[in-house]
Amino acid sequence: MDLDKIFYRKFLKGAFSDPVKVRYWDGTEEDYGDGQPKFEIIFNSHIPKKKILRDPFLTLGESYMDKTLDFKGNIREIIESVYKSNGSFLHNAGAFSRLYKVIPNTIKKSREDIQYHYDVGNDFYSLWLDKTMTYSCAYFKNEDDSLYDAQINKVNHILKKMDLKEGQRLLDIGCGWGELIIAAAKQYGVNAVGITLSEEQYSKVKQRIKENNLEDKVEVRLSDYRELVKNKEKFDRIVSVGMIEHVGRKNLHYYMEGVNSMLVQGGVSLLHCITAQTESEVNEWIKRYIFPGGYIPSIRELVSLMADNNLHLVDVESLRLHYYKTLKIWAENFENALDEVSKIKDDRFIRMWDLYLNACSASFHYGVMDVHQFLFTKGLNNELPMTRKKLYED
């Protein structure tokens, strides 16, 4: 008996909450679980057990990219089935992440990491994002909202929370392709500054500002937030959507100190970010291939840092199921656009992104990830609305 196959039988037997068929590299097949198999796992070639034991996240991710491992069935549902199994390795990323050295996120490294992910091409992102090019959790007010509707909802939800006033100065840290700063200037008459480390995003935002004739109200800079802190710039409002995940655990305090130093007294900040229940590094496959330098902060880490900087938390909202639905739509859009994607990206890249989008969707549906919006003020602010009423008024 192949010793590696004995290991795989034990590893796979309790890995899924649904019945599954496994086809091994020697052509033999085995069913695990009771009933008709819902999925099929295919080992096209042998994967040594020592690689799985060392780091199943990295090994299985790379194996799928390289076609050593394949699936029959919906990838998201397969990963959800693994998450729903209590003994799954997917619940223990931190144990494997400790094997790897964490490199501090200097300004130079942050720029390189951001460009690695976001500068794969505006043409690529435009194939599966909505027309606003918004690459963060949407907000589905209604069950039948389109992705575009939900992204507009999200921007409006954030702008309402910040209680913007005409003439105020707004900073968007990690402004993406610019939808929020453009909407803020148009709807509220604020003077908006967006910063990004992505040259592709910077170019697109400059174009959008010009197309909307907002050169006197909106500015975009290819800059790190730490450079603005150094220049002692001040803002009435600061927003950040999906950026702090790139800061790194060792730099979280720099971010919160920076926001504190840039906000005027009584100023308001909204932080929209992916959160973890407890503290641990993200798995090595994500760090190596998707988000170099990434770290998902826990809720208590963020709240503690707010308190340390006299930043008063006034509102917290979980959007976990909204992000599940957003990612599910992105994955479907991506898969529906494979003919076009294949014209600009190779097969390994395509399999990597397909796995990434579906795995993330699964992790927000049945896994360990959440996404929150934190609203906080510098010192006390008694001018904000006392209820959420206006958030739900059209």
TrEMBL record:
Identify the catalytic residues.
360
Molecular function via GO:
cyclopropane-fatty-acyl-phospholipid synthase activity
Segment forming the signal sequence: none
Record-linked InterPro entries:
CFA/CMAS, CMAS, DUF7884, SAM-dependent_MTases_sf
What does the record list as GO biological process?
A: lipid biosynthetic process; methylation
Question: Where would I find the DUF7884 domain in this sequence?
Answer: 7-93
The EC category is transferase
Residues spanning the membrane: none
Record's keyword terms, sorted = Lipid metabolism, Methyltransferase, S-adenosyl-L-methionine, Transferase
**At the top level of its lineage, which domain of life is listed?**
Bacteria
Its EC number is 2.1.1.79
Q: Which family does it belong to?
A: Belongs to the CFA/CMAS family.
Q: What is this protein called?
A: Cyclopropane-fatty-acyl-phospholipid synthase
Q: Which organism is it from?
A: Clostridium tyrobutyricum DIVETGP
